[in-house]
Design a protein that fits this description.
By secondary structure, the protein is α+β, with helices and mostly antiparallel strands. It has two domains: 1-69, no CATH class; 86-153, no CATH class. It is 27% helix and 10% strand. It contains six helices and four strands, in the order H-E-E-H-H-H-E-H-E-H. A two-stranded antiparallel sheet has the order 1-2. Strands 3-4 form a two-stranded parallel sheet. The longest helix is centred in the middle third of the chain and has 13 residues, at 52-64.
Amino acid sequence: MDLPNAPGLTNYLSLSKAQIDDFIEKLDKFDSFSILPPGKIPPNPNELLMNTKVDEMFVKLKKDYDYIIVVTAPVSLVSDTIMLAKYADTFVYVVRANVLDKRMLHIPKMLYKENKLPNMVVILNDTQVIKGYGYGYGYGIAVEKKPWYKDYF
């Protein structure tokens, strides 16, 4: 999906008289999908997120949209996600298989146990299917991977 490189959230939060509707972009290829671009990276992201305009923005967006999806940086790197969690109905923590260091899984575990993220679920993506017995996701007989041309010739 091509995201607009346009003024967005940080611009809205930085300008005292700005209206959120002025920054929401309708994407051409989708009938009912709009996006609020992030805007320029600010020097003070935490200060912007503590702005009362964030509360006003979510009140308006919840009136205007059925679903609001907020994409944030990984929880372990910045506090933005925790600051925005109070506006969420559900929090989806996405983990990429074979990329995330398993030792980092203590972070979502702690957030879940301390109830810091509402209705938290974890999605494991980019998994590999292994042929064999079972449901196709890893137990049973492992099949040796070989180049496609070895089966062909």
